[in-house]
């Protein structure tokens, strides 16, 4: 009879830390989209949702909208010479978010009954996070610029300002020992 493989506590810590980073990145994208969407001016319009009625700036922040519907709203505000590429990339990020948030335990490696499944689980999470981080950083920069502009216009942003200023270096992946 072969010995059953069991992850060490350190391996569990690594796995759950990576899972937490994934959740943070996907929730960070959602939060930043919720903050900036009311301030974007759709093509063919003269004003943003927040510009028409200043109370509308919290419309998405107070909503239960998740990444899929938020990305759809963002698409309405983006003019691109290659919309199919944006659509492909953004659809992939939504798919990855849903795999992490809703289907992680359904993955064949989730039992962690072998060391190779442990590394497969870590790589699964890491790949999804690394795919989403560039969008998070872009949205982060846009939100910082938006907050700076709102502040210069005299808008009251103190209550949300600190929430959007995360250090960029907090998203850098750490090397994984023993991965193939």
SSE string, helix = H, strand = E?
HHHHHH
Q: Taking all residues together, what is the mean pLDDT?
A: 81
Q: What is the helical fraction, as a range of percent?
A: 55-70%
Described by the principal axes of the CA atoms, the overall outline is: elongated
* Strand fraction: under 5%
Terminal-residue CA separation: 27 Å
Largest sheet: none
Number of strands: 0
List the uncertain runs. Answer: 162-180
In terms of structural class, how would the helical and strand content be classed?
mainly alpha
User: What Rg is obtained from the alpha carbons, in whole angstroms?
Assistant: 19 Å
Number of domains: 1
Number of helices: 6
Description:
This protein has helices spanning 9-36, 49-52, 67-75, 83-102, 115-152, 158-161. The protein has 180 residues and is mainly α. The chain has one domain. It is elongated, with a radius of gyration of 19 Å. It comes from Thermomonas carbonis. This is LA2681-like HEPN domain-containing protein.
């Amino acid at each position: 009879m072969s010995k059953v493989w069991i992850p060490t506590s350190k391996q569990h810590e690594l796995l759950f830390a990576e899972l937490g980073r994934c959740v943070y990145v996907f929730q960070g994208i959602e939060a930043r989209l919720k903050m900036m969407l009311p301030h974007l001016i759709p093509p063919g319009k003269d004003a943003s949702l927040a510009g028409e009625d200043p109370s509308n700036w919290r419309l998405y922040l107070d909503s239960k909208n998740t990444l899929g519907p938020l990305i759809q709203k963002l698409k309405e505000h983006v003019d691109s010479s290659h919309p199919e590429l944006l659509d492909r990339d953004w659809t992939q990020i939504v798919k990855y978010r849903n795999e992490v948030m809703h289907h992680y335990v359904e993955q064949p490696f989730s039992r962690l009954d072998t060391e190779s499944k442990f590394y497969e689980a870590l790589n699964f999470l890491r790949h999804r996070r690394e795919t989403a981080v560039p969008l998070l950083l872009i949205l982060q920069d846009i939100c910082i610029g938006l907050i700076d502009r709102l502040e210069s216009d005299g808008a009251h942003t103190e209550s949300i300002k600190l929430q959007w200023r995360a250090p960029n270096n907090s998203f850098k992946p750490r090397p994984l020992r023993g991965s193939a």
